[in-house]
Amino acid sequence: MSHSHDHADLGPSNTRADAAVARIAGRLLPAAVVLLAAAAWLAWKGGNANATAKLYLVAFTFILAISLGGLFFTMIQFLTRSGWSVAVRRPAEALAANLRWIWIPFMLPLLWLWWKGGQHHEPGVHAMGLDVLWPWANLEHMQQHEPAEYENVLKKAGWLNPNFFVLRAAIYFAVWAVLATVFFKGSTAQDAAGGTATTERLQKLAGPGIILFGLTVTFAAFDWMMSLTPTWFSTMFGVYFFTVCCTAGFSAMALVTIRLQSLGALKGIVTREHLQDLGKYIFAFGIVFWAYIGFSQYMLIWYGNIPEETTWFMARQMGDWTVFSWLLIAGHFVVPFVFMISRWMKRWNATLAVAAAWMLFMSAVDLYWLIVPVIPAGLADAATYADLAQKHKDAPVGFFTLATLCTIGGMLCLFAWRTARTLSRNHLVPVRDPRLGESIAFQNI
After folding, report:
1. Nearest to 428 by CA among 194, 200, 191, 193
2. pTM of the predicted model, to two decimals?
3. Cβ contacts of residue 14 below 8 Å, gap of 6+?
4. Residue 180 host element (H or E)
5. Which tens digits make up the pLDDT trace of 391-407?
6. By three-state DSSP, how is residue 53 classified?
7. What pLDDT band is residue 126 in, cutting at 50, 70 and 90?
8. Which of 182, 248, 295, 344 has its CA 20 to 30 A from that of 315?
9. Going by C-beta distance under 8 Å and a sequence separation of 6 or more, which residues neighbour residue 190?
10. Do 86 and 433 meet the contact criterion of CB atoms below 8 Å apart?
11. What are the residue boundaries of the structural domains of the chain, listed by start?
12. What pLDDT is stored for residue 378 in this prediction?
């Protein structure tokens, strides 16, 4: 563990930007309030509970993915005892720190829907419950209107039932909050205490933490997104959501780091060498690994040609969703792959910022593609694909609407506000981490 800081300025003028970051936070909160208020008004005016709930789920999973990506980055650096990343680890820790409160915008609406769905009502009266999003939450309604799917879903009732569903959600959030608190509090406390004890302790906790992270992220993806279509399943879905977390988290981390540099902080601490490696993370996990997992999932399901599996993809290949799916492939893989394959695009602040902002946007597009499409009734009974495509040629996407912009934008501003508040109260780099000197001196080969 190197203790040389290579003559870098580790004083408050270079490692803190409390006032500047606080001013940014002060602008973000009003923006969040206005956008979320507009989103609520548009939702009330639209009157479509299912569409509103899905859009809210997209916006929530977007900020959740950013937080989980930051948590994964933090833990993997401790697990591998990485030295290069110490200079850029604090932005990841700040993103992950949002996991301490992020349960609120999910668990409160979830508990309300769970309670409403469990109320006793007059025969024939349907109260909005969890089935506003997850059809398995109302088996009686499914039995009456979709008897074939009912028989399939009934076999999964041991897992897909409202009480256990809510309990699992609470467990996921508890695990994430504990992990985020342990690593963030440990790292920031070390800024004052110094020494190697904290680093050694967090290194020991990183292994079990990564295992818990993998399990909870996988099952959360199964519960909250895959079960929107309860008859469909993919064992690769959890890994796919993991790639979304990496894409969003690493991209946000790069943007935060570059923004802090633009405020005049981290001079001589974060260099082009660190930016290049952040770009490598985005390129490896957010572009190449995402494409590999996405193609593998698609190829295996399409080759198997089992109707209850292929219908999920077919719903995303009809009407306007066809163009949207091709835009996802081009925007999430082809274009950024070509743009970022050169090392120079990762080393320059401007080009890396453009790439990171684009990949963050594509993460939101990806989540919209995962959550919003609806499988039309009788899809598996169509005679030919051509007939099916013709019948549903007008299937709308609705991504580029004011409601989408306000909902996702509002949640992102709320998330950014909390992140800025965290950074404004702490050092922007782990100033007394024993590997900081190694990080400052880091050079790419």
Report:
1. 191
2. 0.95
3. 8, 265, 266, 267, 268, 269
4. helix 162-193
5. 777 778 989 999 999 99
6. helix
7. low
8. 248
9. 198, 199, 430, 432, 433
10. yes
11. 12-440
12. 64
112-121, 186-195, 352-361: range with lowest mean pLDDT: 112-121
Q: 268 — phi, psi (to 5°)?
A: 75, -5
Contact 180, 96 (CB under 8 A): yes
- For residue 231, give the 3-state DSSP assignment: coil
* CB within 8 Å of 139: residues ≥ 6 apart: 150, 153, 154, 157
CA 368, 370, 371, 376 dihedral sign is: positive
Angle formed by the axes of helices 237-262 and 349-371, nearest 10°? 150
| DSSP code, position 317 | G
Spatial separation of the C-alpha atoms in residues 298 and 321, rounded to whole Å: 16
Q: How far is the C-alpha of 358 from the C-alpha of 399, rounded, in Å? A: 16
Closest C-alpha to 84, from 269, 252, 308, 302: 269
Taking only the tens place, the pLDDT of each residue in 12-26 is 999 999 999 999 999
- Residue owning tokens 């079960």: 227
